[in-house]
Amino acid sequence: MLALGDITGGYAKAQVLEGVSLEAGAGAVTALIGRNGVGKTTLMRGVMGLLPRMQGDVSLDGVALGGLPTHARARAGLGYVPEGRQIFPELTVMENLAVGQRQPSRLWPEARLFALLPNLRDRRANAGRALSGGEQ
Fold first, then answer.
1. Would you list the DSSP string of the chain?
2. Does residue 85 lie within any of the structural domains?
3. Structural domain of residue 62, as residue ranges?
4. In this structure, are 65 and 101 located in the same domain?
5. Are 71 and 110 found together in one domain?
6. pLDDT (tens digit, 9 = 90+) per residue, 63-117?
């Protein structure tokens, strides 16, 4: 279980979070929702140790993670995948996928790619800018 207790934090002089507490059970799907600018990303960054000004308790399965650096929190089992649209808008879907390969000679076969990402099969020649946010 992930447990957050009385989390307070922010950036420089701006306090964004005050007294946030939350419990997310192991194996449960938990959603953090709210308007733009209310602190969802700030909370997640704080939980991962990416926020310099944060106070409160963070524990995972009863183990306190409060003073640990980000890499130690990740090793303990926490993860954070920020939203981002990190594609090249002028490149095709296939070109964008190839950019991420360290060794072009070892590209995954298309069958393997599209087994993982079936919705992109029909879009493989489309420019990145033509993809919806979810497809990106």
1. -EEEEEEEEEETTEEEEEEEEEEE-TT--------TTSSHHHHHHHHTT--SEEEEEEEETTEE-TT--HHHHHHHT---------S-TTSBHHHHHHHT-S-GGGPPPHHHHHHH-GGGGGGTTSBGGGS-TTT-
2. no
3. 2-76
4. no
5. no
6. 999 889 999 999 898 888 777 767 888 889 888 887 777 666 667 788 888 898 8
